[in-house]
Amino acid sequence: MTKGERPSTIWFVPLLVFALVTAVTGIVFAKPLAQTSDGEALFKEKCVACHTIGGGDLVGPDLQGVAERRSNEWLTQWILAPDQVLASGDPIAAELLAKYKNVPMPNLALTPDQVDSLLAYMGSGATIGGTVLPTGDATRGKALFVGDKRFENSGPQCMSCHSIAGIGALGGGSLGPDLTANGYTKYGEGLAAFLGAPPTVTMNVVWKDTPLTPQEQADLFAFMKNASVSGREPGALLQIALLAILGAAAWIALAQFYWGKRLKGVRRPMIERTLAAAQK
Ligand code: HEC
Ligand code: HEC
Asked: Whose CA is nearest to atom 36 of ligand 2?
C-alpha cells in the first residue's frame, strides 16, 4: 500500500456514516410510526368483525398479548394465510380452530406489508373493544331482512342473497349461504359484531360503503338468533311438501296430455301386427 492512496479512501467515510445513520433511523423510527397508524385502520376494517384487543372474545380470540403468546414468525404466517397454516397441520392452529367453534379464520388476502403494520399495531399496547349494541328487536330484524323496512344507509335487503328459517317456504336468494345454520349457529354471540364489518369477499363489498347502524345490527342479530334456535318451522316444511306434490301432479297431467295418445298410437298397431303374425 502506498501513501498516495489514503486521501481518496477517506472521502468515503462521511458518506458511509451518513448512509448508515439514515438507514438505522429509517428502520428504527420512521417505519414503525407509519405502520402503527396504518395497522389501526386496517385492523378496524378487516379484523374487528371477529376480534377485540382487550375487549373479550368474539368469533375469534381476544388478541391482547398475542405478540407474547406467539412468535412473530407464526403470527406473520397466520395472518397472511391462516388457511395454509391450518392445512399444514400446525398444532396451534388446530387447537384454536377446535376452541373457536370450528369457524376457520378466513384468508383475507393481505400483503406482507399490511401484515407488518398489523403486527406493529397489535404489539403497540393499543386496545380496541367491541361496540356495545342496543337491545335488538326480532320483528324489526325480520322486516329488515326481507326488505319490508329499508336500511338507513340504503344497503340491499339480506333476502336478495340469503335464505333463512322464518321467511316462508320459497325463502330468499342463493348467492350467499342459508343463514339458518350459517348465522347464529355458526358464529354464536359473535355474529352481532360480525354484521358490523363483515370481512368476507362479497359481504365486504356490499356493506363497506353502506354499513348497518348499531340498532339494525342488533335487530338482525335478534331475528337470526331466533331463526337458528327455532329452525325451519313445520309450516314451511309442509308448504314445501305441498308445492312439490302439486308440481309433480301438474307434470304427470301434462305428460298424459301430450304423450299419452302418441304412446297408444304407436303401441296399438305394433300389438296388432304381432298378433296377426302369430296367427299365421
Ligand atoms: C371471520 C372472523 C375473523 C376475522 C375477520 C379475522 N379473524 Fe383472526 N381469528 C378468527 C378465529 C375464529 C380464530 C381462531 C382460530 C380459528 O378458529 O381459525 C382467529 C385467530 C387469530 C389469531 C391467533 C390468536 C391466538 O390466540 O393465537 C390472530 C393473531 C388473528 N386471528 C389475527 C387476526 C387479524 C390481524 C385479523 C384482521 C386482519 C383477523 N384475525 C381477522 C376469526 C377471524
Ligand atoms: C349481494 C348479496 C348479499 C347480500 C345483500 C347479503 N349477503 Fe350475506 N353473504 C353473501 C355471500 C356471497 C356470502 C358468503 C361469503 C362472502 O362471499 O362474503 C355471505 C355471507 C354472510 C354471512 C356469513 C355466513 C357464513 O357461512 O359464514 C352472514 C352471517 C351474512 N352473510 C349475513 C347477511 C345479512 C344479515 C345480510 C343483510 C343485512 C346479508 N348477509 C346481505 C351475500 C350477500
From this structure: 158
pTM of the model: 0.74
Return d(Cα 41, Cα 49) in angstroms, integer. 13
Q: Domain 138-230 class?
A: mainly alpha
Nearest atom in ligand 1 to 92's CA: 27
Integer angstrom CA distances of residue 65 from 62, 126, 160, 260: 9, 10, 41, 75
List, for residues 5-19, the tens digit of each pLDDT value: 555 667 677 667 767
Q: What is the pLDDT of residues 88-117, one digit of tens each?
A: 999 999 999 999 999 999 999 999 999 999
- 63 burial via Cβ count (<10 Å: 0-12, 13-18, 19+): buried
- Retrieve residue 17's grid coordinates: 456514516
Check if 202 has its Cβ closer than 6 Å to any atom of ligand 2: yes
Q: Domain 19-122 is classified in which CATH homologous superfamily?
A: Cytochrome c-like domain (1.10.760.10)
DSSP 197: S
Report which bound ligand comes closest to the CA of 146.
Answer: 2
In the structure, which protein residues have their CB atom closer than 6 angstroms to any atom of ligand 1? 46-47, 49-51, 59-61, 63, 66, 69-70, 75, 78-79, 82, 96-97, 100, 103-106, 108, 118, 199
